[in-house]
Structures are given as C-alpha cells and as structure tokens.
Write a structure and sequence with these properties.
With 281 residues, the chain is α/β, with parallel strands linked by helices. It is 28% helix and 32% strand. The chain has seven helices and 14 strands. Strands 9-8-10-11-12-13 form a six-stranded mixed sheet. The chain has a four-stranded mixed sheet with strand order 4-3-6-5, covered by helices on one side. The longest helix is centred in the middle third of the chain and has 15 residues. The radius of gyration is 20 Å and the shape is flat.
C-alpha cells in the first residue's frame, strides 16, 4: 500500500470553489499480537499509516521493552482474520518476551505527574541496561543539514504533506533507516524496527532526526536503541529534557534554517571557532 489515497474535493480560493483531487494520508488501526509457544497474546492496537507494518510491530515491541532484538522469529499478517481486517492484524512469533508488560503502555506519562515521570525514567534504566557512553563530536553544520537529508528520503510526505517522519542518520549524513507515519511515535518505531528486523549494526555515531516535537516517548525510544543524539524541528517537553539528561543523550530542538537549541549534553556538538562545550542549565 502507498500510504495515501486520492479524494475529490472543493478547493476554495477567495470564495470561488474549484473541483480538484487531493492526496490524503491513510490512517487505520493495526492490532499487534505475540505468539509464544503456540499461545497468542494481544498486545496493542495502534492507529497508523499502513506502510512498513512489520517494522512498526518490531520497533514498538522492542522500544517498549517487550521483546529483545534477537527474540523475533517471524512476523506475518493474520490468516485467520476476516478479509476486511487481514492486513490490519500482525502476528509476531517470538522465542521469549516480557509477559508482565502486556496490557499496559508502560511509558505513558501524564505531563502533570512528576512522580510517575521519575518512575518511568527509572523503568527505562532497567530495560535499556546502560547509559549511552559515546561522546563523538558532531559539527553544528552537519546538524543543520539533518532535516533536509530526512526530507529528501520521505516518499509519502512528498505526495501528501501530512505525515510525520523519523530518520536514523549517521554523522556522515547517510540515512541508515527512515519511517513515515501519521503518528510521530510510530515513525520512530518504524525506523528502529527496520534496523531490528534487518539485523543492521547500530552506529555509535547516529542522530535520530524527527519531524515534530521531541516528547518523552521519542527520547524513550532513542534511549532504548542507544542513539546518542536526538534532533527535532519543533519543541521538546520538560520530561524529554530530563530523560535526555539522565541518559547522556544530546537533545537538539528547533533545528531550522541556520539555528537550533541545545538542551542537554552539548559536549557532542562542535560550534564555530572549535567551541564544543555548549552551556547547560
């Protein structure tokens, strides 16, 4: 599926209607199920754009801490589902998984709840296993190019203009993986899921570039996959900044044109005149 559909519309300009065709991003539910020892477990239903469904399922299960990278045996669409639902139910056969995490989104946080935010950050420490240690320096000019590098690889956006993207890009500007989805968290899961399924070696010098805000869940997924730099074109949340600081992730936001803000661990960013230690509050 292309991820978009065409619809006839009326385009109105100065009160004058013109019949045209518009391209719209598709949104449909995807149910993710786990099969372990021939027993099926329902994990979650996600509203998504039906492209790269297997990568989305793998990335979601991995970044939620439910499965490890090497525990996925097979992914397929459900053969037992009704015809109308067949491409909206994915079965993931695994050798092992964390059954205690099923039935709840372990990283959901109310923005007004500081205590549960701290609890969730501690929980990510348990699942990820370690802090991000890589301190390789990235030039500020390379950071400024990341949004455009990602945009050039966006296929659905070029048709609809209404979809989020997430790209994992190495320090040399090579796109290691990219995901597009109507949900910004799903786009990250797709990008990570592709690398998990392909067995792509993680680069210690990588940037997660996202098209929207840098919220808590975006940083959680970066932490789970060991990505040292997160770059967003829009604003971060306070809890995202806190998580990035705790996990030694460099968080950059408002990356637009010739500017950006450094919120955490600016020591990875080389600025003009060789200055590489950005200020931190």
């Amino acid at each position: 599926m292309s991820g978009f559909v065409e619809r006839k519309i009326l385009r109105v300009n100065n009160g004058i209607p013109v019949k045209e065709t518009d391209t719209i991003t598709v949104e449909e539910p995807l149910e993710i199920k786990i099969i372990h020892n021939e027993i099926e477990y329902s994990v979650s239903v996600i509203m998504r754009t039906p492209v790269d469904d297997f990568s989305l399922a793998a990335g979601f299960l991995f970044t939620e801490g439910i499965v490890k990278e090497n525990s996925i045996k097979e992914i397929k669409y459900s053969n037992s589902a009704k015809v109308s639902e067949r491409n909206n139910i994915v079965q993931v056969e695994v050798s092992d998984f964390e059954e205690n995490l099923l039935g709840r989104r372990n990283f959901y946080v109310n923005s007004s709840c500081g205590v549960c935010g701290k609890t969730n950050i501690d929980d990510i420490f348990v699942k990820s296993g370690e802090l991000i240690k890589n301190k390789s320096v990235l030039n500020y000019e390379d950071i400024l190019e990341m949004p455009e590098i990602m945009k050039r690889s966006q296929k659905i956006f070029n048709s609809t203009g209404g979809i989020h993207a997430a790209a994992i890009i190495d320090y040399y500007g090579n796109v290691l993986s990219i995901g597009e989805d109507i949900g910004r968290h799903n786009a990250v899961d797709k990008a990570i899921g592709k690398m998990v399924l392909n067995g792509t070696k993680r680069s210690p010098e990588a940037v997660l570039q996202v098209s929207g805000r840098a919220g808590f869940e975006i940083l959680q997924k970066a932490a789970m996959f060991g990505i040292p730099v997160v770059s967003s074109v829009s604003a971060p949340s306070s809890l995202a900044v806190e998580l990035a600081d705790e996990f030694n992730i460099t968080l950059l936001s408002f990356v637009r044109g010739n500017r950006f803000n450094v919120y955490t661990h600016g020591e990875r960013i080389e600025l003009r005149n060789g200055y590489s230690q950005a200020s931190r509050n």
